[in-house]
Amino acid sequence: MSFEFELLARDPNSRARAGIFHTPHGPVPTPVFAPVGTAATVKALSPRDLADLGVKLLLSNSYHLYLRPGDELVRDQGGLHRFMAWDGPILTDSGGFQVFSLGESRQVDADGATFRSHIDGSLHRFTPERVMRIQENLGADIVMCLDECPEPHDRAYNEVALARTHVWAERCRASHLRPDQALFGIVQGGIFPDLRTASAGFLTGLDFPGYAIGGLSVGESKEEMHAMLDVVLPLLPETKPRYLMGVGAPEDLVNAVLRGVDIFDCVLPTRLGRNGAALVRGGRLNLRNARYAQDPSPIDPQCDCYTCRHFGRAYLRHLALSNEILGHHLISLHNVYFLVDLARQMRASILARTFAPFATDYLAAYPLPANERDVA
Amino acid sequence: MSFEFELLARDPNSRARAGIFHTPHGPVPTPVFAPVGTAATVKALSPRDLADLGVKLLLSNSYHLYLRPGDELVRDQGGLHRFMAWDGPILTDSGGFQVFSLGESRQVDADGATFRSHIDGSLHRFTPERVMRIQENLGADIVMCLDECPEPHDRAYNEVALARTHVWAERCRASHLRPDQALFGIVQGGIFPDLRTASAGFLTGLDFPGYAIGGLSVGESKEEMHAMLDVVLPLLPETKPRYLMGVGAPEDLVNAVLRGVDIFDCVLPTRLGRNGAALVRGGRLNLRNARYAQDPSPIDPQCDCYTCRHFGRAYLRHLALSNEILGHHLISLHNVYFLVDLARQMRASILARTFAPFATDYLAAYPLPANERDVA
Fold first, then answer.
1. Which residues of B204-243 are buried (b: 16+ CB within 10 A; e: fewer)?
2. SS3 A178
3. Least CA distance to A295: which residue of chain B?
4. Is B93 a catalytic residue?
5. Rounded to whole angstroms, how far apart are CA atoms A28 and A5?
6. Per residue in B142-154, is it b (16+ CB within 10 Å) or e — as a string?
7. Is pTM, for the whole model, over 0.95?
8. What is this model's ipTM?
9. What chain A residue is nearest to B85 in terms of C-alpha separation?
10. Which of A44, A324, A327 shows the shortest C-beta gap to B326?
């Protein structure tokens, strides 16, 4: 089965591109934002809500599904698509990020990682081959190599971790069986240009159908993130999709698309939604704030999501203060729409060759990273 | 403004009726089940979900909205319909039931009740006139008299409370201002046929556009509930709708429609949904049970709700065990549909003159109250 990436347009003024990544569950138009369904559900949104919002790709987490309900149970229920009733494309991560986030509950060695479940403390082990079997059982369209995501400024640790990540990428590739799953390699290397360069070189040598950039948006500055994207993206083949893992702030999406990224995922819109915060151009509204107590206007009068077409801030504030599920639902719905629609707008402007002014205009509403004030 | 009750059909074998209650926000076909939106939201369901399910009437709670966000705020936001984006008929209770449920946090006197908020302990007072003003501010189509709902077996207390309830009914009626709101009287009297008879007589003398039966499903047996319905309903005018407050178990709906009830409300379907329990013919499925861990079948293969058309028990169990909001949503959706659809089926069979066999067949799946085993 082929996972063709159709490159439809390149922005003449930046490295931005628009394309289509073809998967067994349909095409993914890029740039694209994928909301996260950690436990086989995007929190507070149903599959029909997601389809209504124009979601084209979902991410789900192997670590969580492996622990509960178990990847073999998901397989026996017909795979993740059928289990969660989402017939569109799905991407699963390898579980590495969650395992390495467990801190003292895990131990890494050259062969993999041993860890304790955050649910019941039971002992588990992930190796490259094991996470491939788990992801086969889940059955996503796009699957990820096991990688290690270290603190980005620790040079010595990044060198050790990167060597492991490369060996694991080779082992994942060798162990990859299902032709209906595209296995992506993950570029690591912290904030170190030479490590990032080496990683991109090594992984492109393995010829993956797509490449992820990991280890960013994990504590480094925006300038450092942009610098790493500037190093890595020109080294990746134009003919393959590029996926920036875990990034979801609107200004980060625009800055990354400018640098050549195609795919994003993040828990941000749903996490903010459950906390009563709504994404708007230039920032966020904290709907719990007393200033909205009597405000009948929608989150964003320009937005045409269900929430903005029907509900005022005073009502959403009431729901948030009352901790009502409908508040989580309605604000998450708006936030996911906000990012899905941003990706759609970027795509349209790239296709129309107007992305440079679009990006300049969009970013003008956001504070600039300190060292980029002069260039923008 | 007139609130006409159109009586379309009477069942030849019971007191069951089918009709239409006309309100300023549209017709309510009866029998009807109204889900409860305590805090101006039916928990975990959006207004478009409710419309999809065929919901024709919503109930909301004056006590809760008075305390948060405040009835005046709701009025200033355009009233409850606009605030919560539900354009169909709404019924509000008077708040009395919640106040009298507060136990030691409230004191009742002949003029009303003083109570402490369950949210912040602040002191408040409800009188008949006050609850009319609150319900005017909220702006529901159907509003309720202030009544006292005592423990049903305490004869002495029921006598005192009933006298107050009747005075308050007169005061509510005298204080009723908005012609676009129908004020219903509430028959009380515990499990005592003579008190119920007196209450029905007194209230029908005040000529309300509809009558509620309160003080049932609050601790008495099913036999006692049925006996009180058998006493009260023949005393209420045929030309007015009858509303049995707080009743939502499927077998109770059928038994009450057999006895002449038109309108029901209950938190049951959404509360069960949040606890992982699904209504099915004859009982409930506890979806947290291990027996459903690998079960791919829907809650009910015959049901055509969104949940049953797309999701299996194994998935719903996973959501319930993971405490995922989508689990609350999907199971609540099924449960509300179950009761709305039951009311719709009862209505159709009354109109088709086939209600007696429908009810017999339906109730056969449920255990009978002890003293009714012979008669059914």
1. bebebbbbbbbbbbbebebebbbbbbebbbebbeeebbbb
2. coil
3. B77
4. yes
5. 9
6. bbbbbbbbbebee
7. yes
8. 0.97
9. A310
10. A44
